[in-house]
Design goal:
The complex is a heterodimer of chains A (about 800) and B (about 120). Chain A has 25 helices and 43 strands. With about 800 residues, chain A is an alpha/beta fold. Among the domains of chain A are: about 5-110 and about 240-300, FAD/NAD(P)-binding domain, CATH 3.50.50.60; about 125-235, FAD/NAD(P)-binding domain (3-Layer(bba) Sandwich), CATH 3.50.50.60; about 475-540, no CATH class; about 635-775, Sulfite Reductase Hemoprotein, domain 1 (2-Layer Sandwich), CATH 3.30.413. In chain A, strands 5-2-1-9-21 form a 5-stranded parallel β-sheet. The radius of gyration of chain A is 33 Å and the shape is elongated. By secondary structure, chain B is mainly β. Chain B has a single domain, classed as 3-layer Sandwich (Rieske Iron-sulfur Protein). Chain B has no helices and 10 strands. Classes of the chains: A alpha/beta (about 800), B mainly beta (about 120). Chains A and B meet through loops of A and strand 1, strand 2 and strand 5 of B.
C-alpha cells in the first residue's frame, strides 16, 4: 500500500517541494490542504496584480488540472487545526481526520499587524494574499488618499501598485532608511529619491501611534503629533511565521518551526518548509532559499540524506519597474575584517557597495545598476578569491564572448529566483523541446515569467545554447513611464486615459520629459483617433506653433503644395509674403515645395493668412508630402496618371500625425522620376497596374522600399496605401521610421495584417483612419482661433517699455 | 528711458499657460517666465550653449529643455542638469500679486558666479 503524504499549506514553498518529490521515484499518495480557496499561485507577484500588470489568472502556478494529472488530492479552503502525532492524523476545522505517514508543514507566514490603536477600523488592510489584493482593488481608485505603513519590499511594492491605480500614496516608515534590512543609509536615500520621483510620498522616520476615524479610517496620527489624512491604509510591517499548529502539536518552535539541515522537525515524521521554518536561528521571507529547502526536503523524505540545507545568505530584489534594487549577503560594515568598496553617481542614481572579507565577496548593495548581480552572486556563492579582480571589481569587464559568462555559470546556479529555475533546468528544456524563443522558454520552465529581472540572463542562455535563437524586441519608452509602447497603448485604451498628464500621474513620475511627452501626445491622438485632450505643453515647440524652429529661434514656413503642383497665383502670393515680411531666404525644398525661412513667431499667423494655403506639416511627425512626376498628362513615357493620384493620396492623408514623418511619392512609370522607391510609401505606375511599395528611405538611411502589393486600379492602390498608413500609425514605436518598422516586423507580417487581412480587419483599419481624418484639420487655421491668447503673440511688459 | 531695475510688473498670469514658458523683453533684457503647477519662475531666455530660446522648451518637473539641442536647466537655480553642459542661466526673483506677475530685474543671479552679471 502506498504511504500517505500530507502537506499542510498550498503556498509556493509547499507545492514547489511537492513538485520536487514528483520528479523522483516515490510511493506516496499526496494530499494537500490549503486554507485559501485558490489553486497554487505565485505570491510574490501579487504586487503586479495590484498594479494591473498581471491578472490573477496570470500568477497561477499550478491550476486544478495539475493536481488531477498528478493524482494529488487538493483540499482547498480547508483549515487544519490540529495534529495528533500519536495517531499520525491531522484534524481539520470540521473535526475531519486525515492519516499521514509523513507530514510536511508549509504553513507560511502571516502579515504582522503592529499593536496600534485603530487597526481594526474599516479600510485598514494587509497585503499578503490574493484575497487581500482583491479587497484592495475594490477600494483603489484615482485620487484616493492612501497610506502604506511599512517601507520594506512589500510596502514599497504595494505602494507602487496602488499608485498605478491612481491612488495618492504616502509610505510611512518607522525607520530612517527605507528597506533598512537590505540597504544602508546611502542606498536608502537613493531608493527614497527614486520612489519619490515616481510620485509616491515618503515619510520617515515616522512612528504611527494611532489610526483615527469614526468606524472608517480617516487618517494616521504619529508619535510626533503630526497627522496624515488617509481613506485607505495598508499595513506592510513585516511577517510572522505561522507556527501555532506546530506549537500546539508540541513540536519544537522558536520564532518559526525549528528544522534541521534535512528540514526535519523535532518529530522525524514531520518536516517543515518555507516561511514557517526556523533554521539555525534564521527565519525566511524571500523565495529563493525556500526552493532550495524544497529540494533538500524532497530528497530527505525519500530517504536520501545526501543533500543538506545549510542556510542561505539573504538576497532581495525590489520588483518595481524602473527602480533597480538588489541586496545580498551581509551588509554589516562593522563586522571585523570587512572592507567596503563603493561607487556612487547621484545624477545617474547609481550606488554600488561591495563588502569584502579576506578578499571574498561577503555582501552587496546595488542601486540603479544591477547588471552584475549574477556575477556577484556567483562570486559570493563560490567564495572566489577576488584579489585579481580588485581593480575592476565595481565594473567587472563584460566578456567579449557573451557565451563565456553563461558557460562559466555552474549548472546548479539559480537563474530565476522567483520560480526556482536553475541553469541546468533551462539548458535541459532548450534541448528537450527545441526552444528558440524566450516565450517558449517561459512557457516550458516559467523562468522570467515573474519579476522579469532574469530575462537578460535567459536570453543569454538561449543565445549560447541554440543557434536559432530569435530575439524579441521590446523597447521601453523612457524612465519617466517605464513601459513598452505596446503596454502604454493598452494602458491608455484600457484605463481610458485621455491626456498626457493623466498617463504621467498614474503610470509615470508625474513630470515627464521631452522624450515621453511628445510620444504620449502622439499615442493619445492615435488611440482615440483625435478625440483626446490635447495638451500643448506636452508638445515640442514646432507642434505648438506649427512651424519649424531654426537655429536663431525664428521659424520656417512651408505651405502645402499637393503633389508638387502649384499655380501662378500661389507663386505670386508666396512672392508677396516674402517681400512683405522681408523673408531672408526662399528655397525650393527636396520635396517639391517652397520654404520661407527666418519668420518670427509673432508673424506666423499673418504669414499663413496672406499665403492662403494650408500647412505643409513640414515641422512635425506627420504627413509631409507626396512627390509626383508629370505622369500621363505631358510625359511621353507615363503609363499612369501619377500627378492626379499623388494629389489624391496627399488629400486623403494630410493633416494626420504619424510616429515619425511620412514622405510619399507617386510615379507614372518605372523610370521613377519622383523617387517613389525610396519613400516611406510609394506608388509606382505600370502599364495596367500599380505597385504599392513601403519602407523606402533616402535620408540618413538609404533603403529600397519593399513591395506591399500590386493592384489594377488607382482606387485599389490608394486603399492599400491607407491600410499600410494606418497600420504604421497604430503599431510603430514613436520616432520609428517606416524603414525600421518594416524591417522590424517583416513585410510578410505587414501584408498579412493589412492588404491580405480578412475583410473585417481591413475595414476596421480603414474605419479608424476615417475617424481620425474626420477630426484632423489644417493646423494653420489656429491663426483665427489660437489655443491660447499668447500662442503666437509676444507679451508686452506692463512696465519698463522705452517710451 | 532705461529699463527698470527693481520689482517690475510684467504681465497678468493668464498670459502664461500651465507648464509652458513665454518670453518678455524689457529694455535690452529678455526673460522667460514659466508657469509651474503652483508658481511662476523666471530665467534669462537664452541658452548658454547656442543661444536657444528657452521659453519654447518642454518643461519637465522644475526643469526646461532647450528646443534647439536639448540642454536642460533647473528653473529654480538656473543650473544645468548635466555637469557636462557648459554654463548656467541667470534666474530672477518672481512673485505674483493680484494676478500680476512681478519680476525683480535687479535680482539676476547666476549660481555659478559669485556676483551676478547684469544681463
Amino acid at each position: 500500500m502506498k504511504k500517505q503524504l500530507v502537506v499542510v499549506g498550498n503556498g509556493m514553498s509547499g507545492v514547489a517541494c511537492v513538485e520536487q518529490i514528483l520528479k523522483q521515484p516515490h510511493d506516496f499518495e499526496i494530499t494537500i490542504f490549503g486554507d485559501e480557496t485558490h489553486a497554487n499561485y505565485n505570491r510574490i507577484l501579487l504586487s503586479l496584480v495590484l498594479a494591473g500588470e498581471k491578472s490573477p489568472e496570470d500568477i497561477v502556478i499550478n491550476d486544478i488540472e495539475w493536481y488531477q494529472t498528478h493524482d494529488i488530492r487538493a483540499r482547498l479552503g480547508v483549515k487544519i487545526t490540529g495534529i495528533d502525532r500519536e495517531r499520525r492524523v491531522v484534524i481539520d476545522e470540521d473535526r475531519g481526520e486525515t492519516e499521514y505517514d509523513k507530514l510536511i508543514l508549509a504553513t507560511g507566514s502571516s502579515a504582522f499587524i503592529p499593536p496600534i490603536p485603530g487597526v481594526d477600523k474599516t479600510n485598514v488592510h494587509v497585503f499578503r494574499t490574493l484575497d487581500d489584493t482583491r479587497a484592495l482593488l475594490e477600494k483603489a481608485r484615482p485620487g484616493l488618499k492612501t497610506a502604506v505603513i511599512g517601507g520594506g519590499l512589500l510596502g514599497l511594492e504595494a505602494a507602487r501598485g496602488l499608485q498605478m491605480r491612481g491612488c495618492e500614496v504616502t509610505v510611512v516608515h518607522l525607520m530612517d532608511t527605507l528597506m533598512e534590512r537590505q540597504l544602508d543609509s546611502t542606498g536608502g536615500e537613493y531608493l527614497k529619491r527614486k520612489i519619490e520621483s515616481l510620485g509616491i510620498r515618503v515619510m520617515l522616520p515616522q512612528q504611527t501611534s494611532a489610526l483615527f476615524g469614526n468606524g472608517r479610517v480617516d487618517g494616521l496620527r504619529f508619535a510626533s503629533g503630526e497627522e496624515l489624512e488617509a481613506d485607505l491604509v495598508v499595513i506592510a510591517a513585516g511577517i510572522r511565521p505561522n507556527a501555532d499548529l506546530a506549537r500546539k502539536a508540541g513540536l519544537e518552535v522558536g520564532r518559526g518551526i525549528i528544522v534541521n539541515d534535512y528540514l526535519e522537525t523535532s518529530d522525524p515524521n514531520i518536516f517543515a518548509v518555507g516561511e514557517c521554518t526556523e533554521h539555525r536561528g534564521q527565519t525566511f521571507g524571500l523565495v529563493a532559499p525556500l526552493f532550495e529547502q524544497g529540494r533538500v526536503l524532497a530528497s530527505a523524505i525519500a530517504g536520501n540524506r545526501g543533500p543538506v540545507f545549510e542556510g542561505a545568505s539573504p538576497a532581495a530584489k525590489l520588483k518595481i519597474m524602473g527602480v533597480d534594487i538588489f541586496s545580498a549577503g551581509s551588509i554589516d560594515e562593522s563586522e571585523p575584517g570587512v572592507e567596503t568598496v563603493r561607487y556612487e553617481d547621484p545624477s545617474l542614481g547609481t550606488y554600488k557597495k561591495l563588502l569584502l572579507k579576506e578578499n571574498r565577496l561577503h555582501g552587496m548593495i546595488l542601486v540603479g545598476d544591477i547588471e552584475d548581480e549574477h556575477l556577484y552572486m556567483e562570486w559570493m556563492r563560490s567564495g572566489a578569491d577576488l584579489t585579481a579582480h580588485r581593480r575592476q571589481i565595481l565594473f567587472p569587464p563584460r566578456d567579449a564572448d557573451p557565451g563565456r559568462e553563461v558557460a562559466d555559470m555552474p549548472d546548479t546556479e539559480t537563474v530565476c529566483g522567483c520560480n526556482g529555475v536553475r541553469k541546468a533546468d533551462i539548458i535541459q528544456a532548450i534541448h528537450a523541446h527545441g526552444l528558440t524563443t524566450l516565450a517558449g522558454l517561459k512557457q516550458r520552465t516559467r523562468a522570467s515569467t515573474s519579476c522579469g529581472s532574469c530575462t537578460g540572463l535567459c536570453e543569454k542562455l538561449l543565445r549560447a545554447v541554440t543557434p536559432d535563437f530569435q530575439e524579441e524586441t521590446r523597447t521601453t519608452l523612457c524612465a519617466c513611464v517605464p513601459f513598452s509602447y505596446e503596454q502604454l497603448r493598452d494602458i491608455i485604451r484600457g484605463q481610458q486615459l485621455k491626456s498626457v498628464e493623466e498617463v504621467l500621474n498614474v503610470y509615470g513620475n508625474r513630470k515627464g520629459c521631452e522624450v515621453c511627452k511628445p510620444a504620449l501626445s502622439y499615442m493619445l491622438d492615435m488611440v482615440w483617433c483625435g478625440d483626446h485632450e490635447e495638451d500643448r505643453s506636452a508638445r515640442f515647440i514646432n507642434d505648438r506653433v506649427h512651424a519649424n524652429i531654426q537655429k536663431d529661434g525664428t521659424f520656417s514656413v512651408i505651405p502645402r503644395m499637393r503633389g508638387g503642383v502649384t499655380t501662378p497665383d500661389e507663386l505670386r502670393r508666396i512672392a508677396d509674403v516674402a517681400d512683405k515680411y522681408k523673408v531672408p531666404m526662399v528655397k525650393v525644398t527636396g520635396s517639391q515645395r517652397i520654404d520661407l525661412l527666418g519668420i518670427k513667431k509673432a508673424d506666423l499667423p499673418n504669414v499663413w493668412a496672406d499665403l492662403g494655403m494650408p500647412s505643409g506639416q513640414a515641422y512635425t511627425k506627420g504627413v509631409r508630402m507626396v512627390k509626383t512626376c508629370v505622369g500621363t498628362e505631358f510625359c511621353r513615357f507615363g503609363v499612369q496618371d501619377s500627378t492626379r493620384a499623388g494629389i489624391e493620396l496627399e488629400r486623403r492623408l494630410e493633416n494626420l500625425f504619424t510616429p515619425h514623418k511620412v514622405k510619399m511619392g507617386v510615379v507614372g512609370c518605372p523610370r521613377n522620376c519622383a523617387e517613389a522607391t525610396v519613400k516611406d510609401l510609394g506608388m509606382i505606375g505600370q502599364d495596367g497596374s500599380w505597385q504599392v511599395v513601403v519602407g523606402g528611405a533616402a535620408g540618413k538611411s538609404v533603403r529600397k522600399a519593399d513591395l506591399l502589393i500590386t493592384v489594377e486600379t488607382t482606387a485599389q492602390a490608394l486603399e492599400a496605401c491607407d491600410l499600410f498608413f494606418q497600420y504604421y500609425r497604430e503599431n510603430a514605436n514613436y520616432l520609428e521610421r517606416t524603414y525600421d518598422f518594416v524591417e522590424r516586423l517583416g513585410i510578410e507580417k505587414i501584408r498579412k495584417e493589412t492588404v491580405y487581412a480578412p475583410e473585417g480587419e481591413r475595414e476596421k483599419l480603414l474605419d479608424r483612419l476615417a475617424r481620425s481624418k474626420a477630426l484632423a484639420k489644417d493646423a494653420w487655421l489656429e491663426r483665427e482661433a489660437p489655443v491660447h491668447p499668447t500662442q503666437f503673440v509676444q507679451i508686452q511688459p506692463m512696465e519698463g517699455q522705452p517710451s | 528711458m532705461s529699463a527698470p531695475q527693481g520689482w517690475t510688473a510684467i504681465t497678468t498670469i493668464d498670459k502664461v499657460p500651465l507648464r509652458e514658458g513665454r518670453a518678455v523683453t524689457i529694455g535690452n533684457t529678455e526673460i522667460a517666465i514659466f508657469h509651474l503647477a503652483d508658481r511662476y519662475l523666471t530665467i534669462e531666455n537664452k541658452c548658454p550653449h547656442k543661444g536657444g530660446p528657452l521659453c519654447d522648451g518642454i518643461v519637465s518637473g522644475t526643469t526646461v529643455v532647450c528646443p534647439l539641442h536639448g540642454q536642460r536647466f533647473d528653473l529654480e537655480t538656473g543650473m544645468p542638469v548635466l555637469a557636462s553642459q557648459p554654463a548656467c542661466v541667470a534666474t530672477f526673483s518672481t512673485r505674483v500679486e493680484d494676478g500680476i506677475i512681478f519680476v525683480d530685474l535687479g535680482s539676476a543671479h547666476k549660481a555659478s558666479e559669485e556676483v551676478a552679471a547684469v544681463v
